[in-house]
Amino acid sequence: MDRPKMKLLLIDDDKGITRALKETLRAEYEVMFAHTGFNGLQLADDEDFDCILLDLGLPDITGLRVCELLRSRGCNVPILILSAESQVLNKIKLLDAGADDYLTKPFSLGELKARLRVIERHNQKPKNPAVQLTIGEVSIDGSRREVSRAGQQIDLRGKEYSILECLMQNSGKIVTRSSLGEYAWSQLDSPWANTIDVHIKLLRDKFDRPFDKKLIKTIHGFGYRYEVAGK
Q1: pLDDT band at residue 126, thresholds of 50, 70 and 90?
Q2: Res 192: pLDDT
Q3: Cα(179)–Cα(157) distance, rounded to whole angstroms?
Q4: 144-177 pLDDT, tens per residue?
C-alpha cells in the first residue's frame, strides 16, 4: 500500500517559484499555496498540514511575523523557512520565533526534498516517552513540557526543551552535537551548520543566564555537558 502523501503549505508571493515547486513536488507531495501572509495563516487555520514552507519576503506581513503568529495560535507543524538572507542573527530570530529549519535561496530541489524527508521521518518517529526528572533545583515534566529552576518556571520552545531534556538525562556526561541533533530533530546532522550552537545559546539565555551557577557547559571539540551538583 502506498504511503499517504505529505501535505505541504507553501507561503510565497513569487508565483514563478510556486509554479516550479508545484510541478516538481506534486508527484510526491500534496501542495497548497498562499501568496500572502494572511492567506497563509487562514489556510493553516482551516487545513491540516505536515509542513509549512514559509518565505520571509511577503507583500503584507513578514514571514517572521507569520511564524510568530502560527506558533502563538498553537500550530506545532514543522516550519521550513525559505529566504535569500543567510545572516546568523536573522537565523537566531527565526529560531526564537519557532522555525524548525532554514533554506537559503537559491536552493536545489534535491536539498529541499532532503529536508522534507527529514521532517517526514520525524513526524513518523514514535515520540520520546515523557520524562519527569529532578536534578538539584531543576525539574522537568515531559508530559507538560514544563521546566522549573529554583521554583521559577522557565518557558522554553520545543527544540530548547528537547535539548535540555537530552542533556539532563545524560547529566555529568558529554553529549555530542550529533546526539543532540538525533534527539531533537531525528537526524544525525543539524538542519544548518550551527543550529545546535544557536539553540544552546537561546537555551542558556533563559535557563542559565538569570542564575549564578551555570549548568550547561561547552566541551570544546566534543559537545556539551549538563553539570551535576557539586561539580
Answers
A1: low
A2: 52
A3: 19
A4: 889 999 999 999 887 888 899 999 999 999 999 8
**Which grid cell sits at 179?**
546526539
In the predicted structure, residue 189 carries a pLDDT above the cut 50: no
Write down the CATH number for the domain with range 132-226.
1.10.10.10
The predicted model gives 65-72 an average pLDDT of: 90
The CATH number for 6-124, chosen from 3.40.50.2300, 3.30.450.40, 1.10.10.10, 3.60.15.10, is 3.40.50.2300
* CB contact at 8 A, 143 and 132: yes
Residue 28 CB burial class (10 angstroms; 0-12, 13-18, ≥19): middle
**Residue ranges per domain, the chain?**
6-124, 132-226
d(CA 181, CA 188): 6
User: Does the predicted TM-score (pTM) go above 0.70?
Assistant: no
User: Prior bond to 4 cis, omega within 30?
Assistant: no
d(CA 52, CA 81): 8
Cβ neighbours for 11, distance < 8 A, ≥ 6 positions apart = 33, 34, 35, 36, 37, 39, 40, 52, 53, 54, 55, 58, 63, 66
Please say whether the dihedral angle defined by the alpha carbons of residues 94, 70, 141 and 211, taken in this order, is positive or negative. positive
